[in-house]
Structure formats: structure tokens, C-alpha cells
Amino acid sequence: MPQLTDAQLDKASLRTVALARRAALAGPAREVAAEAAALHAMQWLGEVKGEVVSVFAPIGGEIATDPLVRRLREAGAAVALPIVLDVGKPLLFRLWEPGAELVPSVGPGRISIPAPPEGAPAVSPDVLVVPLAAFDARGNRLGYGAGFYDRTLCLLRRAKRIEALGYAFAVQQLAAVPAEPHDERLDAIATDAGIVCPAED
Questions:
Q1: Under CATH, which number does the domain 6-196 receive?
Q2: pLDDT of 24-67, one tens digit each?
Q3: Residue 141 is assigned to a ligand binding site
Q4: Does the annotation flag 68 for ligand binding?
Q5: Is 119 labeled as ligand-binding?
Q6: 49 is an annotated ligand-binding site residue
């Protein structure tokens, strides 16, 4: 039986492929990759002083964001983290002050996600650093199936100019990720291998 290419696989199968690649990365390689991705992200973002940048607290095997958070704060950006309100709703963002301890918050399904305390101010980000399972060179993102970031990006893009930067290991790039009408494309993807900037259609 001939082997299927990335372009012939469905979303669930593609997600499995990309997450298996991510899981195969060893600990030391992950640390080096996270530092490199943070450097590439900052180069792409440019001047961030005074901007609100939402990052994510990595769960499972996601790339570490600590090196990026450190650089963002050194550059004068305010850092926020997303909060899951409910299934089918867009994300809320709360300011993560330096030194503030994160607390568990309800994520999709039974997942617990670290988040700023409930009293932290809600903010509207200028930049979204977006987690993902897989991506392609056209800026298509494959998430985890709940649609939180697609809904949130759609809402924010109607209200203001916002940059959406995918953040992942380079091994998570696939030849093609199927895109549906509700899927929101990324402006770029920062990885340990560099920046993937989608070409205009």
C-alpha cells in the first residue's frame, strides 16, 4: 500500500504526525531550541516596548516560552496569558506581572493551564504568540481541535490591528495543513530554525 503524504492526511492524522515528532525531541535539544526560537521571534517582532504580548504557558510537550517571556520583558513589553472562559467562547487575556505566581485555571476538557491570578487586569493584546500542533509554510495552523485561537483571532482582527505569531519547534512543520473557512492564518511562525513567513496569495 502506498504511503500517504502530508497533503493527503486528515487533520487528526496530521496532528498525530506532528505531535510524535515533537515528543521525540530530547530534553537538551528542547532547551536549545526554545532559546533559538525566542531570539527569532524577537527579531521578527521588532520594537515591542509598550505593547501587550500574549504568550502561552506550555503544556504537554509544547516549546518552552520562558526564554521569550524574559526577552519580551527586557524589551519593555507587557506580558499576558490567555484564560479559557468556556467552550465555544473566545479567550480572555490577563496581565502577567513579573514575579506573579501563576495559578491553575480550567483549560479545554480536563486540562489545567497555568494562568495569572483572577485579580490580574484583563487586557487586549497587540500580539498573540500562538501554540500549535502543526503548521505549514502558508501560515495555516493546526491546533488541538477546540478552536479557541481561531475564534479569538477573528474577534480581535475585527477590532484592531494584531499580529499572530505561531511558536513551535521546526519539526512541527508539515508540507500542508488543510484550511477551512473559519481557520485564521498566522502572520508568521517562529521556530528554532528561523521564521516562516507565509507568502501572500
A1: 3.40.50.10420
A2: 999 999 999 999 999 999 999 999 999 999 999 999 899 999 99
A3: yes
A4: no
A5: no
A6: no
